[in-house]
Amino acid sequence: MKQEIMTIISQQQLAPRIFQMTLTGDLVKEMDKPGQFIHIKVPRADMLLRRPISINQINKEAKTCTIIYRTEGDGTKVFSELTTGDSLDVMGPLGNGFDVDCLTSGQKAYVIGGGIGIPPMYELSKQLKQNGIEVIHFLGYASKDVAYFQDEFIALGDTRFATDDGSFGVEGNVGNLLLDAIQKEQPDAVYACGANGMLKMVAQVFSDNPNVFLSLEQRMACGMGACYACVCHVPDDETGVKSVKVCDEGPIFRANEVVL
Ligand code: FAD
Ligand code: FES
After folding, report:
1. Which atom from ligand 1 is nearest to the alpha carbon of 55?
2. Is the CB of 80 under 6 A from ligand 1?
3. How many domains does the chain fold into?
4. Distance of alpha carbon 67 from alpha carbon 123, whole angstroms
5. What is the pLDDT of residues 209-240, one digit of tens each?
6. How far apart are CA 117 and CA 68, in angstroms?
7. Which candidate, 40, 103, 158, 183, has a CA 20 to 30 Å from the CA of 224?
């Protein structure tokens, strides 16, 4: 993990409240694993905590990385007002990242993303595909208006969509798509990032699969394992005191390692 002042080389709006930002800097040399995140200082003196945002794409040759974020509060609103040439104080890459080495060429992976959990799944899918893995994407959005990155995923492989209101793809959540898919085939590994309810459903549907990897989200402060702001409980702990830190032991856990 390193810290650097990175330069914004582009920023564009993909959908209402959803922005894609590309940054350049030496930190990109450290980025390898999909599912890791960067911890970004908001360039405003009164905002002390950094904001964790997943890495959406890594381009080592161009020395760039891309993030996709949704404006939620003041921090992400400030990010959305920045433009080409502006700089950001970035720490990273942080977290463990998805395990792509548990699969070998020819095997099949389900890549599942919901809402603003979709961005890190793109770099993951790219790397899986490079390793000869067949990827099937299951992407869920609230509605067609807030859907983004559909063509990029389609270019990597079979991609199925669901929206809460049925305005695009199947109506309902990605669970409907998954239940349909597993009638025909079982994946060798499952990767998911999204709301807690979606992660619980994925863990349940694939409870017999040992390779189910979930990306968790917790509020963070230091982002590097020092403050215990981001703990999550572990299963079968009668004392209720055992926990894991999402920032440095995660954010990716096997489904049976954490209480969702
Ligand atoms: P505020 O609500 O004003 O933030 C107040 C404080 O709460 C800040 O310290 C903020 O960091 C924290 N906070 C608020 N919401 C969250 C949240 N959901 N998760 C963690 N901390 C939160 N969002 C994206 O849009 N794209 C991503 O790729 C992405 N990746 C993430 C990866 C990880 C590992 C984690 C933990 C979170 C990720 N998030 C992502 C969520 C993102 O960090 C929050 O939306 C953001 O911090 C909100 O900041 P704010 O100042 O706009 O909102
Ligand atoms: Fe400090 Fe995780 S945010 S330990």
Report:
1. 28
2. no
3. 2
4. 11
5. 999 999 999 999 999 999 999 999 999 888 87
6. 10
7. 103
CA 121–ligand 1 middle distance (angstroms): 17
Question: Which ligand is the nearest neighbour of the Cα of 226?
Answer: 2
Task: Let me know if residue 233 belongs to a domain.
Answer: no
Query: Same domain for 85 and 171?
Result: no
Confirm or deny that 230 is annotated as ligand binding: yes
- Residue whose Cα lies nearest atom 14 of ligand 1: it is 219
Q: Whose CA is nearest to atom 53 of ligand 1?
A: 73
> Is residue 166 pLDDT above 80, yes or no?
yes
- Which 3-state string (H, E, C) describes 169-186? CEECCHHHHHHHHHHHCC
Q: Ligand 1, atom 28: nearest CA belongs to which residue?
A: 54
Q: Is residue 1 pLDDT above 80, yes or no?
A: no
Q: Give tens-digit pLDDT for 36-63.
A: 999 999 999 999 999 999 999 999 999 9
Same domain, 125 and 61: no
Of 1, 216, 230, which is best to mutate to test ligand 2, by the most ligand atoms within 8 angstroms of its C-beta? Answer: 230
* DSSP-H helix ranges across the chain: 74-80, 119-130, 150-156, 174-184, 196-205
What integer pLDDT is reported at residue 241 of this predicted model?
85
Q: Left, alpha or beta for 188 (phi > 0: left; psi -120 to 50: alpha)? A: alpha
What CATH number has the domain bearing residue 42?
2.40.30.10
Q: Report the nearest atom of ligand 1 relative to the CA of 52.
A: 43
Has residue 224 been placed in a domain?
Answer: no
> What pLDDT is attached to residue 239?
85
Tens of pLDDT, residue by residue over 84-136, are 999 999 999 999 999 999 999 999 999 999 999 999 999 999 999 999 999 99
Residue with tokens 């790219």: 126
